[in-house]
């Protein structure tokens, strides 16, 4: 009775709290095998004992739907074993099943008088079987799954307001041996209500990973087992790598491996492959999504893998589908040709339209003649295989080619074609090439290939040779150079292709070279040919008559010497004009250089002072080209000049290559005088044409701002440049810079131009370290200044004392400044006289002090500086002399440039000049160079004529005897000897006097 009353109470509570609902939602990875809440009607499970044990009770859930429960509550009686067995449950392929039991259990303590018999657990069993209708199963055949206890239990039977808890316990068990199984609940004396029993197994549900479908998969038998599953690619995709995944025991998919990719023309979208829309494409499997067709292409249907090019656009075989469609290039532009004898440099600009590509290549077509020939004229022929193209004829990446080995004086047509990756079979609509027709210049003849000797005698040999392969014009004459080995050479000229060489030494090997000359000049000498003369027992000279003749000649020579002095100037002019006889001998051991002093007969160009023009614009347009401002493209400001900004930029003139230029501009608000002074620099610069003088490109005067355009010098001014590169050059490099400057200064002084502001700051340096004299602003301006203005503007440290004192500006005062520039160069841009005041500098110079040698400066260079700083300006060397000295130093640097004069780090004292070693800039070599006779240098030195004194005795006969046989040369040398010697001796005397008294 009591038990029945407990049971009713329990059931009433279950219903009231609504803890069980029949409409339950199962997780997707659980497959239900049995759920008592969804079984319609009674369960009718087998109970043992059939009476007084488990009892089936119907209750209502919260939605008033009846559910079936089992209850038992035999707590008062000892030794209870009440069995309740479910119906057969098919396992449906599951290997491990889960049993979820919801139950309520009465706490024994809350039941009065049940001590010892009341239990709070029950047991769960299973039995595997293929028989779905087992009538009777022996209880001992069941296998125990677990003893189940309540986590929560109610303790009081206080029906009014008590809280009751429902227990949920889940157990799992492996069921692999039969098709199904039975479960059993054994009560051992507890008060229990089995509210629901839910039996299920777990699966990994169907899923798509990496575009592969994995089917619904039962989990494995063990709690730790992983079931390997192979996926299959979704529609319109293909395997990238075998797709695999593992189904874990809890119904979760694990470790996806491999996968599939969408076919081309399709893209992935939400685990499926979706077709590319019209206007889109997908060409490579590594691309993620479909892309819009690239420029100049289209697609007309869905699922496109490569878009088609629009009409007139193309794709090369190697172009990727993602690249826009492109076109062939238009023609190259602005073809410029520069003919140099039989070579031509062709340069052009890139085509206006590159067709959207970067793989442009050029090729050169070469035809002999001009395509627009008159009717009936000779057809254009290809140039032939002899013509050389550098770097190559076709496949050129650069816009420049040098064509050489062309025929002289011949008309050629060159066509530059442009092609790119889509040119094959397509055209850009316009002509893709540009042509130029030109005529090559004269060229020197090619070398004579071989020389034959005949009629060899003791003193002579007859030579003969063939005309050069490429005479490149009419051969005017041949020159034969010949010498005994290691001896000085002789030259003979002849108009025919043979020569009889006489006056040779017997039994001696001679080396012969021949070269041809046309109007275009000399060709190269042939390779050397050696022939030997026959033996001769007789001496050439040596009898008494000859000796007497020699003596007579010497005494006559002395008289001649004196006469020749007086007629020096006239003789010199006549001599310079004298031309060579076709069969005359010249003795030398170097090719004669061009005469160093310009011959008066050639006419020396003299600089014209622009201030002599009334109209400054007339002066500037006489000497400078007016440039249209639209041709100038200013890029940046590089400095500030006296009249305004100095900028760099580009200048592009019709038919000429674009060049980089410096642009000096005249600032706004200038006065007329400033404009005139500003433009005077251009008028001066425009008169010069020398590699060491800054080149004027032109002026802009017709619009504002007024500008002067000069060549651009990448390294800026010399002083700043040297300071930036302190200690980084070799002495030879520094001397090379000095040589450039003096060469420019010699040119200026030859043109009778006095610079007046020569200083390292006014020398500009280009990227090849070539130094150029610039800044021609001061020369005239100084002349106009008042005394006060003059003293403030004059660059004291660089200016010769006589120019400071009484404005005596001469080439010799420029020489003084040049000495200071030498010092600046050798000290890497040090300020001359450091921080001494101008007044102190003037005073020190006046007292005879001079700048000491800069650190590591070769003694000979410091000596040359001291020469430039001679107080008496007539004692300073000319620029020609300085040039010769520097050339000699450069040619023979080891002996001359090794000795340094300034081992001290930074000199603080100036050095007094004078002392026992007087300054001498005279040498046989540069004296002979100055008079254009340096081919006799070795002849004279070998004969002992090395000092001014020894030359005093030189006579015409002496000269004849040592091989100076040309009468005009003899005269010229004698005339000059007298002059040079006199002035030199005078100089030495003065210096010796100077050295004895303090200056
Ligand atoms: O020392 P820099 O760089 O060189 O600064 C000055 C500045 O302009 C003012 O005169 C520079 N400069 C002048 N003429 C030229 C030129 N032709 N090429 C390059 N720089 C120049 C000079």
TrEMBL record:
Disulfide feature: 73-191, 108-118
Reaction(s) this enzyme catalyzes, per UniProt: L-tyrosyl-[protein] + ATP = O-phospho-L-tyrosyl-[protein] + ADP + H(+)
Location (main, coarse): membrane
Any one of the GO CC terms: plasma membrane
GO MF entries: ATP binding; transmembrane-ephrin receptor activity
Entry keyword annotation includes Transferase: yes
Bilayer topology term: Single-pass type I membrane protein
Record-linked Gene3D superfamilies: ephrin a2 ectodomain, Galactose-binding domain-like, Immunoglobulins, Phosphorylase Kinase, domain 1, Transcription Factor, Ets-1, Transferase(Phosphotransferase) domain 1, Tumor Necrosis Factor Receptor, subunit A, domain 2
Regions that span the bilayer: 549-570
Localization (cell): Cell membrane; Early endosome
Any single biological process term in GO: axon guidance
Domain Eph LBD residue range list: 30-209
The EC number(s) this enzyme carries: 2.7.10.1
Positions that bind ATP: 638-646, 664
Signal peptide stretch: 1-22
Keywords carried by this UniProt record: ATP-binding, Cell membrane, Disulfide bond, Endosome, Glycoprotein, Kinase, Membrane, Nucleotide-binding, Phosphoprotein, Receptor, Repeat, Signal, Transferase, Transmembrane, Transmembrane helix, Tyrosine-protein kinase
Domain Protein kinase span(s) in chain numbering: 632-890
Enzyme class label: transferase
This protein's name: receptor protein-tyrosine kinase
Organism encoding this protein: Hucho hucho (huchen)
């Amino acid at each position: 009775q009591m038990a029945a009353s407990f049971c009713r109470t329990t059931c009433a509570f279950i219903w009231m709290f609504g803890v069980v609902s029949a409409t339950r939602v199962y997780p997707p990875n659980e497959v239900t095998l049995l759920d008592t809440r969804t079984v319609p009607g009674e369960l009718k499970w087998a109970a043992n004992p059939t009476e007084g044990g488990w009892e089936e009770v119907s209750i209502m859930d919260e939605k008033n739907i009846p559910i079936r429960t089992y209850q038992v509550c035999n707590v008062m009686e000892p030794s209870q074993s009440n069995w309740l067995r479910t119906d057969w449950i098919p396992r449906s392929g599951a290997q491990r099943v889960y049993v979820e039991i919801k139950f309520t259990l009465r706490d024994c303590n809350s039941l009065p008088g049940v001590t010892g018999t009341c239990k709070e657990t029950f047991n769960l069993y299973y039995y595997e079987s293929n028989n779905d209708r087992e009538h009777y199963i022996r209880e001992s055949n069941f296998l125990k799954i677990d003893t189940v206890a309540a986590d929560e239990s109610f303790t009081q039977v206080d029906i009014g307001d008590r809280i009751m808890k429902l227990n949920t316990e889940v157990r799992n068990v492996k069921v692999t041996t039969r098709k199904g199984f039975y479960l059993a609940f054994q009560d051992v004396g507890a008060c229990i209500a089995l509210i629901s029993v839910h039996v299920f197994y777990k699966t990994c549900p169907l899923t798509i990973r990496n575009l592969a479908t994995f089917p619904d998969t039962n989990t494995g038998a063990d709690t730790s087992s992983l079931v390997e599953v192979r996926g299959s690619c979704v529609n319109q995709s293909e395997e990238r790598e075998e797709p695999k995944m593992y189904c874990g025991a809890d119904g979760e998919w694990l470790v996806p491996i491999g996968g599939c990719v969408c076919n081309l023309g399709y893209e992935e979208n939400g685990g499926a492959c979706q077709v590319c829309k019209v206007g889109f494409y997908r060409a490579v499997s590594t691309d993620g999504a479909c892309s819009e067709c690239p420029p100049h292409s289209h697609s007309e249907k869905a699922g496109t893998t490569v878009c088609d090019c629009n009409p007139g656009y193309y794709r090369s075989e190697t172009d990727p589908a993602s690249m826009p469609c492109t076109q062939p290039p238009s023609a190259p532009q602005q073809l410029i040709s520069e003919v140099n004898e039989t070579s031509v440099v062709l340069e052009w600009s890139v085509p206006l339209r590159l067709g959207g590509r970067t793989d442009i290549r050029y090729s050169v077509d070469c035809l002999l003649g001009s395509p627009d020939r008159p009717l009936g004229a000779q057809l254009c022929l290809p140039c032939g295989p002899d013509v050389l193209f550098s770097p190559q004829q076709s496949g050129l990446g650069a816009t420049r080619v040098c064509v050489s080995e062309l025929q002289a004086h011949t008309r050629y047509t060159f066509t530059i074609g442009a092609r790119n990756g889509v040119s094959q079979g397509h055209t850009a609509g316009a002509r893709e090439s540009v042509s130029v027709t030109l005529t090559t210049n004269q060229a020197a003849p090619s070398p004579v290939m071989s020389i034959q000797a005949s009629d060899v005698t003791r003193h002579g040999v007859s030579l003969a040779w063939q005309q050069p392969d490429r005479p490149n014009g009419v051969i005017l004459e041949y020159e034969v150079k010949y010498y005994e080995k290691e001896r000085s050479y002789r030259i003979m000229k002849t108009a025919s292709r043979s020569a009889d060489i006489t006056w040779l030494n017997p039994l001696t090997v001679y080396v012969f070279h021949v070269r041809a000359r046309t109007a275009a000049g000399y060709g190269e000498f042939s390779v050397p040919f050696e022939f030997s003369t026959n033996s001769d027992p007789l001496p050439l000279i040596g009898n008494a008559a000859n000796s007497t003749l020699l003596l007579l000649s010497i005494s006559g020579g002395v008289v001649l010497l004196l006469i020749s002095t007086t007629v020096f100037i006239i003789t010199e002019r006549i001599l310079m004009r004298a031309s060579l006889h076709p069969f005359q001998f010249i003795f030398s051991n170097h090719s004669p250089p061009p005469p160093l002093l310009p011959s008066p007969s050639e006419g020396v160009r003299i600089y014209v002072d622009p201030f002599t023009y009334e109209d400054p614009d007339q002066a500037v347009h006489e000497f400078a080209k007016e440039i249209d401002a639209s041709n100038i493209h200013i890029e940046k400001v590089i400095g500030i000049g006296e009249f305004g900004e100095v900028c760099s930029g580009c200048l592009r003139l019709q038919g000429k290559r674009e060049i980089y230029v410096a642009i000096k501009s005249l600032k706004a608000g200038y006065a007329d005088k400033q404009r005139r002074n500003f433009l005077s620099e251009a008028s001066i610069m425009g008169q010069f044409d020398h590699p060491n003088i800054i080149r004027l490109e032109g002026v802009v005067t017709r619009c504002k701002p007024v500008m002067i355009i000069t060549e651009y010098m990448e390294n800026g001014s010399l002083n700043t440049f040297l300071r930036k590169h302190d200690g980084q050059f070799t002495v030879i490099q520094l001397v090379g810079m000095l040589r450039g400057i003096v060469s420019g200064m010699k040119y200026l002084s030859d043109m009778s131009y006095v610079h007046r502001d020569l200083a390292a700051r006014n020398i500009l340096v280009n990227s090849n370290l070539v130094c150029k004299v610039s800044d021609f602003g001061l020369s005239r301006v100084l002349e106009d200044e008042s005394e006060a203005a003059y003293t403030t503007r004059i660059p004291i440290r660089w200016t010769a004392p006589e120019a400071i004192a009484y404005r005596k500006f001469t080439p010799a005062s420029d020489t003084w400044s040049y000495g200071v520039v030498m010092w600046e160069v050798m000290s890497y841009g040090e300020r001359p006289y450091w921080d001494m005041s101008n007044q102190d500098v003037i005073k020190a110079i006046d007292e005879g002090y001079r700048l000491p040698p800069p650190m590591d400066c070769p003694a000979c260079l410091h000596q040359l500086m001291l020469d430039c700083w001679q107080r008496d300006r007539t004692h300073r060397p000319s620029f020609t002399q300085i040039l010769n000295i520097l050339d000699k130093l450069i040619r023979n640097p080891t002996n001359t440039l090794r000795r340094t004069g300034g081992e001290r780090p930074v000199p603080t004292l100036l050095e007094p000049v004078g002392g026992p070693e007087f300054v001498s800039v005279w040498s046989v070599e540069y004296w002979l160079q100055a008079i254009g006779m340096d081919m006799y240098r070795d002849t004279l030195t070998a004969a002992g004529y090395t000092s001014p004194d020894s030359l005093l005795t030189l006579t015409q006969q002496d000269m004849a005897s040592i091989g100076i046989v040309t009468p005009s040369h003899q005269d010229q040398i004698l005339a000059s000897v007298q002059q040079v010697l006199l002035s030199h001796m005078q100089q030495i005397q003065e210096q010796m006097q100077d050295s004895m008294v303090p200056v």
